[in-house]
Amino acid sequence: MKNLFNRILQLIEKVEKNSQTAFAKKIGWQQSTFNGYLNEEGQRKIRLTLIMDILRTYPTVSRDWLLWGEGEMFVEPKAAKKTAILQTDAPVQGESFAVDEAAVSRKEYEDLKKRLSEVEAELREADRLNRKLTTRLLIEGASDQAAVTNTGKVGEGHE
Questions:
Q1: Residue 24 contacts residue 53 (beta carbons within 8 Å)
Q2: Which value, in Å, is the radius of gyration of the alpha carbons in the chain?
Q3: What is the pLDDT of residues 128-146, one digit of tens each?
Q4: Are the CB atoms for 52 and 98 separated by under 8 Å?
Q5: pTM score > 0.85 for this model?
Q6: pLDDT in tens, 15-74
Q7: Which end of the chain has fewer CB atoms within 10 angstroms, the N or the C?
Q8: How would you write the chain as a 3-class SS string?
Q9: Distance between CA atoms of 30 and 83, rounded to whole angstroms?
Q10: How far apart are CA 13 and CA 29, in angstroms?
Q11: Rounded Cα gap, residues 106 and 104, in angstroms
């Protein structure tokens, strides 16, 4: 199945005999909120917290199967790896939010954290420069506008 919500429905069928109410209650979600995600439109709004709660409640569910439809629905309990999912409430849009703790060393984690800080600083600087440039263009645009004569022609020194 290619849709995340379809895989969640398939999981509900297997673990709770098709009871969306029981499933929602077991993962700690209100039924109305949870059911809002179980369609094509609602799938776009699925948040990581939902995925995290499903994987925490059902640790033998394969993360790869749930997120991307790869592999089997369930993994062997002894083969189930502890999974860390970054704590964010952003909608699920890419594959970069799931991290296997065994695959990422503490140093790699610290390096990634440092790089993230650097990229955030670069974005803040780019935003600052963008605002400065926008202000400058607005001021120059106002100056150019003032140079236009009543005939609609550009004044001397302006082309």
A1: no
A2: 26
A3: 888 888 888 888 776 666 6
A4: no
A5: no
A6: 999 999 999 999 999 999 999 999 888 888 888 889 999 999 999 999 989 988 899 999
A7: C
A8: CCCHHHHHHHHHHHHHCCCHHHHHHHHCCCHHHHHCCCCHHHHCCCEHHHHHHHHHHCCCECHHHHHHCCCCCECCCCCCCCEEECCCCCECCCCCCEEEHHHCCHHHHHHHHHHHHHHHHHHHHHHHHHHHHHHHHHHHHHHHHHHECCCCCECCCCC
A9: 24
A10: 17
A11: 7
Closest CA to 50 of 13, 97, 91: 91
Q: Distance of CA 48 to CAs 84, 96, 117, 148, Å?
A: 11, 12, 22, 55
CB count within 10 Å of CB 107 equals 8
d(CA 98, CA 93): 11
Listed in sequence order, the residues at least 6 apart from 28 whose beta carbon sits closer than 8 Å to its beta carbon are 53, 57
